[in-house]
Amino acid sequence: MSSSSTAPSASEPARLERLIARVCLCFYALGAFARVLPFFEGGSRFLQRYPTEDGYLMLTIARNLAIGNGFSTASGEIPTNGTQPLTTLIWSCFFALSGGEKELGVALVLLFQLALSGAMAWICYRSFAHLLEGRPQGRSIAQLVAALSFASPVALPHSMNCLETGAYGCIALLVAGIAIDTRSSLSWRRSILFGVLLGLAFLVRNDAIFLIAGACLVQGFAPRADPRETLPLRLTRTTVTGLVSIAVASPWLVFNYANFGHIVPVSGRAESLTGSFAGNLAEMPIIWVEYLIAIVPIPIGVQHTAWMPYVAALIVLGGLALLLRIWPQLRGPERRLLALLGVFSGGLAAFYGLFFGAGWFLPRYFFPLAPWLMLPMCVLIVRALARCGAGWAAPATAASLVLLVGGVTARNHLAHGDHAHFEVVRWVQANVPEQAWVGAVQTGTVGFFHDRTMNLDGKVNPGAYEALIQRRLHEYVVASPIEFLADWYPAMRDWMKSPVIASAFEVAHFDPEANVGALRRRSER
């Protein structure tokens, strides 16, 4: 009687593991299907679904690299450092494979990002499985975090944006996993190789300096399993790690300073012009809460309400208070991870919240934190399914979860029609000769499809950046070889209000419904 009464109870963990595994399999199928579907919808859909405006900027520079024009835009005529170098170099390999053919190059980049998303999920699982080893349902939670990070409607678009975002997510997980592992010997070889990885993280995205700082602090000060690895030894070898990371990153810094007079890329300096001090503070908690929820995005209308920043801030503060409360119960790896993430996320929050503009980019800037922010939701889901018992409630709850994620993914796909900049691209292709210069503030997409395009927000054009600093952008445009200005309708309408622009340009095409505005240089009489 005893054995028969305990048999069902003993099978509960196995039943839960199988259920979680099925949910994860569905998530992987949803995530993969959403990523490849645009290839089967015909036309230029795959060019419009995931590549972003800034993604096309990076693709333009990568293609120029592949065809021998170096880091540049406008067919090599405007040198630039307004990009993240390592991912740009990788993208250039795909354009080299395509022989410089634009559409094939983009397709190869998108397929690589699909593979990279899978790699990130695998690294995520391995990292969380190690972190949660010995915890109740630890393996199932790790599986769910990995699968949800792959399929989350909140995170998925950022992993396919043709920027460095997906690679950054991968390398952040790798760095954190290695930094908190104190069981392995901190040998000279390990210290050097870890420094190489940290240097590569910086080349993936330069705000990884905060990740590097957190990793070095944890590696240097966290006690290790081998008592012979004393604090002085750890600090010495961590110093070597830091120096190696600087050596790996230094070619890019030298290139920037030698060619552009500043170690910070022009893109970062230009984007800092778009905001005011602490201008992004109200938006940051909303982004974190959205990643915390993970399953459904917060509607834009809700995000823009007056009360949402306060609610989100309270949720974030509540989460921090909970972490402080459970701190005594946390094990060594968990404490080390929180210390690393505290430095990493704190650095990102201070930089992007206080000193940076371009608040609309915050979701992708905080993407590397997404797997860790999703952990509480995954713990709640697994614990809820465990409480459902052996009846129909657990499978029904799991099915509802899959349907919810699938439904939101489908809605996002159907709601994403034409790329926001493709109407401008179509007008330029139909009305502007290939050799004519086009200028615009937003030149990522237009500049990819029309080679002779001059960027005017300064992100990839040092000349425009200097003009912005001097408040002489319109004079810069008039003195340039630009023959057409083409961008969204409101921007071009406002530009025509400038006497400087109106004296040199006339309206070529205004279409408010299609959101296209174009100006043509006046012919000399």
In DSSP terms (H or I, runs of 4 or more residues), the helix count works out at: 24
- Please tally the β strands and state the result: 7
| Main beta-sheet strand count, sense and barrel state | 5 strands, mixed
Outline type: globular
Characterise this structure.
This protein has 525 residues and is mainly α. It folds into two domains: 2-49 and 81-415, no CATH class; 422-521. Helix content is 64%, strand content 5%. It contains 24 helices and seven strands. The strands form two sheets. Strands 4-3-5-7-6 form a five-stranded mixed beta sheet, sandwiched between helices. The chain has a two-stranded antiparallel ribbon with strand order 1-2. Helix 6 (138-151) crosses helix 17 and helix 9 (209-221) packs antiparallel against helix 15 (332-354). It is globular, with a radius of gyration of 25 Å. Mean pLDDT is 94; it is low at 1-8.
Would you spell out the secondary-structure blueprint of this structure?
Elements: H1 2-36, H2 45-49, H3 53-66, E1 72-73, E2 78-79, H4 85-97, H5 102-131, H6 138-151, H7 165-179, H8 188-204, H9 209-221, H10 231-260, H11 266-271, H12 284-293, H13 300-303, H14 308-326, H15 332-354, H16 362-365, H17 370-387, H18 393-415, H19 422-431, E3 438-440, H20 444-449, E4 453-455, H21 462-469, H22 473-479, E5 484-487, H23 489-495, H24 499-504, E6 505-511, E7 516-521
Parallel strand pairs: 3-4, 3-5
Antiparallel strand pairs: 1-2, 5-7, 6-7
Helix pairs in contact: 1-6, 1-18, 3-4, 4-5, 5-6, 5-7, 6-17, 7-8, 7-9, 8-10, 9-10, 9-15, 12-14, 12-17, 17-18, 21-22
